[in-house]
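Practice problem 4.
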């Protein structure tokens, strides 16, 4: 793993209740990092990181849900998952066909591509992460997402589903190169396991976007003045700005 060179110090200014975690997908066993000593679902690995406060890695033997399928760690998941019977029997879908359709829309790694996954709290992060995953309050997530679009004009995008939310949190951002966000516990397994608190927002930032987000956070205004004005003053200021722009256009086009 390449040593960490990206300056991530700006993220400490959020004072997150749970520090962001860095994720690394590996073919070969990482050195100098302890293996997880229990079985957990992929979504629960985040909670484990918050509580453990030290880096760890896990393998297929540690993953206790269909996260191993989305990571390409399961030997023969396709007939089992593709049948759609799991979601149907849990009452999540009207018929297996709906679950089957969603199964084919999920993102996953090819078999054997990822054998080890390292998860580290940002404070102990010593490698360049493939993902940074944030558990944020809504007002914190607004700042994070605005840092994505501040210099790029990128559109906010949220993708997930009622099952295999881990696919959209871990694999989709990595393979698509897009930042993704979702409310906690929208996914059946995450909700049923009580993996994360309700009312929070998960933001998954792939490696391509980490430097941009960090740089923009250092430059932009975190709480725009308009957010603190109140409605009446905001409308007055809106009219002033519009009048100013109209005047600029008029002067240029005379």
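Answer key:
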């Amino acid at each position: 793993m390449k040593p960490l060179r990206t300056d991530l110090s700006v993220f400490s200014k959020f004072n997150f209740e749970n520090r962001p975690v860095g994720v690394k997908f590996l073919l070969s066993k990482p050195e100098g990092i302890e293996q997880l000593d229990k079985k957990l679902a992929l979504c629960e690995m985040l909670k484990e990181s918050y509580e453990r406060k030290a880096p760890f890695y896990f393998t297929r033997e540690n993953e206790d849900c269909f996260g191993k399928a989305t990571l390409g760690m399961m030997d023969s998941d396709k007939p089992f998952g593709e049948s759609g019977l799991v979601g149907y029997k849990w009452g999540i879908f009207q018929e297996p066909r709906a679950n089957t359709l969603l199964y084919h829309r999920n993102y996953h790694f090819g078999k054997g591509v990822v054998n080890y996954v390292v998860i580290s709290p940002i404070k102990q992060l010593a490698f360049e992460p493939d993902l940074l995953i944030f558990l944020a309050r809504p007002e914190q997530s607004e700042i994070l997402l605005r840092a994505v679009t501040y210099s790029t004009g990128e559109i906010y995008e949220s993708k997930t589903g009622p099952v295999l939310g881990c696919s959209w949190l871990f694999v989709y951002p990595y393979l698509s190169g897009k930042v993704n966000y979702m409310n906690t516990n929208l996914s059946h397994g995450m909700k049923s396991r009580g993996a994360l608190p309700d009312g929070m927002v998960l933001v998954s930032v792939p490696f391509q976007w980490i430097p941009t987000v960090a740089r923009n956070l250092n430059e932009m205004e975190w709480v725009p003045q308009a957010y603190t004005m109140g409605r009446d003053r905001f409308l007055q200021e809106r009219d002033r700005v519009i009048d100013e722009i109209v005047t600029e256009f008029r002067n240029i086009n005379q």
